[in-house]
Structures are given as structure tokens and as C-alpha cells.
Amino acid sequence: MGAYILRRILLVIPTLFGIMLLNFALTQFVPGGPIEQIIADMEGRGNVSESLTGGGGDAAFQAEVTSGVTGSTYTGARGLPPEFIERLEKEFGFDKPPVERFFLMMWNYARFDFGKSWFHPDKTVVQLVIERLPVSISLGLWSTLLAYFISIPLGIRKAVKDGSRFDNWTSGAIIIGYAIPGFLFAVLLVVLFAGGSYWRIFPLSGIVSEGWQNMSPLAKIGDYFWHMALPVIASTISGFATLTLLTKNSFLDEIRKQYVMTARAKGLSERRVLYGHVFRNAMLIVISGFPALFISVFFGGSLIIETIFSLDGLGRLGYEAALSRNYPVVFGTLFAFGLMGLVMGIITDLTYVLIDPRIDFESRN
């Protein structure tokens, strides 16, 4: 097992390098880079002194940009002087060829130096991610746990009652839930319970209330879950149906195997057969997929939920960075999350082995 883990760890390096190279190459063909964004900002609003982060630039250059935009000598129709464009390209590092920029970026990322955001003057990429992390962790963790706590017991019950009225009714409800898009269900929750048209039971924005720091520990916990209730429910609906049916089918496959018939023939109770023999084998694929499911909820599908419930999470951070061509944030988060996803893949394999020691990855050719 040790050799297998070592091989997987070594494969992380070329895989991550390929991910970064592919995305970096794609951005070279995307129109409207950060410099074009700044030029459009200057021509549209007349002041970009807040947009330029400095990123190694000096105050004189910042003053030159501001005066060049707001002074009487500048008009949008005249265009920008070539010298200014050159200074702007140097400010963002675009005076270097793409290959040099890519390898310099990878060298910095290998040392976990993700640099500063271009459009947030006083914050590094790490600081921006840390600020948004509580929202994404809250959505990913509680949505995954809620899905497992509901889907596993329900899936087991459906397998035991396969073909019964209970199985048919719950299957219909699951299909309806699966057919409703997560964002539409989120809007429905807002309309019903967040003051949209009916009741105002839950808050509509943030993960805590103002003055949360001054509350008692019990009040803090209650306030936190009060804010997270609707976003978590909306995030759970998408993975709920799939996980329930996966649990049911896994149990049905195991229940029909020979060892279950043997256990029943020995006189073991149905509960002992189900939870003493079937459970461990049937839950292998379900429980081992927990890391991957958490990562998928954590990184994907949260943008719309965060937008509807006015939450500043990693989904909105990545979306805003992509729109503004804030490449340090785009590539920094891509590197960090890609690395985390690859590590989670290794943890998933280890989970398989912990649940079922019969699995031996070393025996595969």
C-alpha cells in the first residue's frame, strides 16, 4: 500500500502541472485581459486609482494614471499613449513572454507564494481565500452531512421495503426533488421563508448577524445555523436523490448475494444480517465517496446559491476574478483547489481500504 500511495503522490505533480498549463494556455486566447479591463474602466468611469493594486508599482505611476485620466489633457477619443500602455504591461508582468510568465508563476506556486490580487490593493490571494473560506466550508460540510444523514437511512429503508408503497412514494418524491434545479429550489425557499412573498422566518444574507461577537456561545451557535438553514437545504437537494438511490441499489445488490442467504439459514435475525453483514459491504462505495462529494459541494455548484443568499464564498470569488481577469486569484485558487482535489482522491482510496481491508491496490497490475 505504501508503494501505491507513493506513486499516487508522485503523479500529483505532473497532473497539477498539466491542469495549470492547459488553463494558462486557454487564457492566452481569451479576449479582454486585465489591461483591457483597466482601459475600459478608465474610459467608462474616469478613475482607476482604486483598481490598480501596485503589485510592485510605485506611487508616482499611480498618480500619473489618475492625473492622466481625470486631467483636462485626457479624453477617451484620443486613446492612450504607447508609453502608458507599456508601463501598464510592466505593472502586471505582461512585458515578459508567456512561457517565462508561466514558469515563474509555477515556481512561486511551488513555494505556495500566490502573490497579490490585482484589483484588491491591500490583500494577497491567500487573504482573500481565507476571508471567503468560512462560507464555502459551511455550505460544503453541512450540505454533505445532511445529505448523508438523510439519504443513508432512507436508502436502507427503501432497499428493505423494495417494491412496497413506501418505496414507490419515496421514489416519486426523490424524482421530483431531483428534477427541481438547486437554484430554483433556493428561490422558492427565499419566496416562502425569507420575506419574499410570505413569511420572514430566516435571514436573507450573511452567515451571522451583526453583533454576533457579543452574543453568548449558545446564541452564537443558534444564530449561525439560523443563517445557514436555507442555503444548506438548497445545496443539499441536488445530491440528495443520487445518494439515496446509490445507497438503495448497493444494499439490494448485497442482499441478493449468497452469503446473506447463508446467514439467514443459520438463524440470524434480519437486523443482525442487515447491519452485521450487509451494511459494511454495501456502504463501501457510499462512505468512501464522502471526500469526493464534499469537494464537489465545496468547490462546485455554490456560485448560484451564494448569489441568491448574498453569501461571499469561494464560488463568487472565482466568478468575480474570472470576469475581471484577476489572474493571480484565478490561477492561485485553481492551483490550491486542484492540489486539494488530487489529495482527496488519494484519501478516497485510503478510505476504501479502511472500510474493506480486502481491497489491495498493490495487487493491481
TrEMBL record:
Segments passing through the bilayer: 9-26, 135-156, 168-194, 224-247, 282-309, 329-355
GO biological process: microcin transport; transmembrane transport
InterPro entries per record: MetI-like, MetI-like_sf
Pfam families recorded: BPD_transp_1 (PF00528)
GO CC terms: plasma membrane
Primary subcellular site in the record, as a coarse category: membrane
Coiled coil segments of this chain: none
Ranges where the ABC transmembrane type-1 domain occurs: 133-352
PROSITE patterns: ABC_TM1 (PS50928)
Record Gene3D superfamilies: MetI-like
Source superkingdom: Bacteria
Keyword field: Cell inner membrane, Cell membrane, Membrane, Transmembrane, Transmembrane helix, Transport
Compartments, as annotated in UniProt: Cell inner membrane; Cell membrane
Topology in membrane: Multi-pass membrane protein
Family to which the UniProt record says this protein belongs: Belongs to the binding-protein-dependent transport system permease family.
PANTHER family cross-referenced by the UniProt entry: INNER MEMBRANE ABC TRANSPORTER, INNER MEMBRANE ABC TRANSPORTER PERMEASE PROTEIN YEJB
Protein name: Microcin C transport system permease protein
Record organism: Ketogulonicigenium robustum
The organism's taxonomic lineage, starting at the top: Bacteria, Pseudomonadati, Pseudomonadota, Alphaproteobacteria, Rhodobacterales
